[in-house]
Amino acid sequence: MLDPKLLRESPGTVRAAIAKKHLQVDLDAVIALDNAWRALLQETETLRSRQKAANGEMAKLPKGSPEFIAKVAEMKAVSAQVKEKEAALKDAEEKCRAAMLSLPNIPHESVPEGATPEQNVVFSTHGDIAALVSPHAKPHYEIDGFNKLFDFDRGAKVTGAGFPFYVGDGAKIVRALLQFFLDEDTKAGYTEVNPPIFVNEASATAVGQLPDKEGMMYETIPDRFYAIPTAETPLTNFFRDEIIDEAALPVCRCAYTPCFRREAGSYGKDVRGLNRLHQFDKVELLKWVHPSKSYEEHDKLRDDAERLLQKLGLPYRVLLMCGGDLGFSQAKKYDLEVWSGGQKRWLEVSSCSNFESFQARRAQIRFRGKDGKPELVHTLNGSGLAIPRVLSALLENNLQADGRVKIPAALAPYFGKEYLSFA
RNA sequence: GGAGAGGUGGCAGAGUGGUCGAAUGCGCGCGCUUGGAAAGCGCGUAUACCGCAAGGUAUCGGGGGUUCGAAUCCCCCCCUCUCCGCCA
């Protein structure tokens, strides 16, 4: 959520932000709702003020006295008015809040102009594809024996499409990657957290998954919990409605969780094999930082995620997202895409985003500044990393002539052997 | 799942219909005192919103209700604790 003051004092800034993100929002309507709410608030508070004053007088009057009885009659009318105004105020407040929530975050000045993904800027490219991709590479879902290690048929029977069983070396490689990522992230200064994988409505709302996006999440009956689409959800909510000690900033955390996404409407090559699943494993990086350090920390976060790909010897590139491809709540975002040597395309394995105070305002996450006043933190997050697509690239790029997969040196100690076998 | 007890400011803990944003203590900050410190004394010590300002309003787990008036009474929900049951 944006600062309402920004809308009042500098609507042009908000208008420009909407334009840069190529969104359609009736800003004048939002401003009108805000004005209506403020006017109504004034009226209501004036009435309440009268009520309070009368209350003080009545407390001093003898209960049954004529003055007292007269006062009750008088205040009855005021009370009715207050009830009426309060109902109107509540209605205005809800409309106003909903309208405010429809306003996107302001893109950072360094975000390139552009409307479509094609206009994202290639920020950097790493790793020599020719040298790092095996000549025997093929799409992972076409590798002989793939279904033995990644059993989609059994998964579909037991749960549904997109919920595979990982078996034998398939399970082991997932575990190795998770542990490798967590160890590396911990070394980089992130404290490991193991969060709940279901959240309540308040938490889903605080990070913007509700309202409107309930279709992307699995919901439990009868408790109305939501299966998390990413560890960002519980992690960001850790400090919801809290004031963090300024000296503790930046707070850096990492968490492994399974992630659950309904992905309604996906189809085609995007969903083949491990490319897009309803349940997948991911290690998430999250930072709560001082606003003055926000972009410095953002770059470090991206570096931390990049280092994982480098250590695995996977070629990748970094995209700087243009305004039109930025998410609603992000001020700036880098995507890390790994080269899938078999499918011959880039696969997104991490999005490193700076939300500035947009999330923090909605979730009320603050720190106490030098002057003693609470101030909103900036929140940043990024994957470090999402397992299945890293795994896709790994299986494809490292596929040997004999059908085995060479395990990168950095990962071998975790996997326990040098080759993964589909036999 | 059943029965009971509770949720008040940074913490502890009063307050059962009015002058209560809320006693008192602790903690914290500033000052006095002191050679210095402790003790003692004095003052201060939540958050948010509206307003140019003066100022006003809201908040006693959350929501709704009763009332001229609710921290206080009623209803629903959430959470914590104790006992019982069940269980990895």
Counting helices, strands and paired strands, the structural category is alpha+beta
Radius of gyration: 27 Å
Distance between the termini: 52 Å
Helix content: 40-55%
User: Largest beta sheet, briefly?
Assistant: 8 strands, mixed
Structure description:
This protein has 423 residues and is an alpha+beta fold. Helices cover 40% and strands 20% of the residues. The chain has helices spanning 4-9, 11-20, 27-60, 66-101, 129-132, 146-149, 152-158, 169-187, 201-206, 232-237, 294-311, 358-363, 387-397, 412-415, and strands spanning 121-126, 150-151, 165-166, 191-193, 198-199, 226-227, 242-244, 251-260, 279-289, 316-320, 332-340, 345-354, 365-368, 374-376, 378-386, 405-406, 419-420. It has an eight-stranded mixed beta sheet with strand order 1-10-11-12-15-9-8-4. Helix 3 (27-60) runs antiparallel to helix 4 (66-101). The chain starts with a helix and ends with a strand. The model has no long low-confidence stretch (mean pLDDT 93). The structure holds one RNA strand of 88 nucleotides.
At a glance:
The protein has 423 residues and is α+β, with helices and mostly antiparallel strands. The protein has helices at residues 4-9, 11-20, 27-60, 66-101, 129-132, 146-149, 152-158, 169-187, 201-206, 232-237, 294-311, 358-363, 387-397, 412-415, and strands at residues 121-126, 150-151, 165-166, 191-193, 198-199, 226-227, 242-244, 251-260, 279-289, 316-320, 332-340, 345-354, 365-368, 374-376, 378-386, 405-406, 419-420.
